[in-house]
Amino acid sequence: MNEGQMTMADHVFAEAMAAYAVNPCSDQKRQNLMLACARDVRGHLSDIPAISRLALNFDVLTTLAPGPARGSEMFDLKRNLARFHEWRLGRAQEALKRQQD
Length: 101
Fold this sequence. Notes:
101 residues; mainly alpha
């Protein structure tokens, strides 16, 4: 499956969502900053499935009432972040193998 290359918007978006999800303190100001970063690039994302899943998580999180995300929304986000990082790791391993051949 040819999923194309990640765009810079994809990188920014994924990092913002990761920072939002793994923020070691539940500081609402920092979480809002991460969501604002993601919001800035939301309209420029590629159609890579791993990014699309994160975009759906973002859409759900930003339609909730202000305040911390509920457990199920954070669980879904963290699950999709893990899937994204597994996908990206697999792509990196494939590229490394091609370089070594």
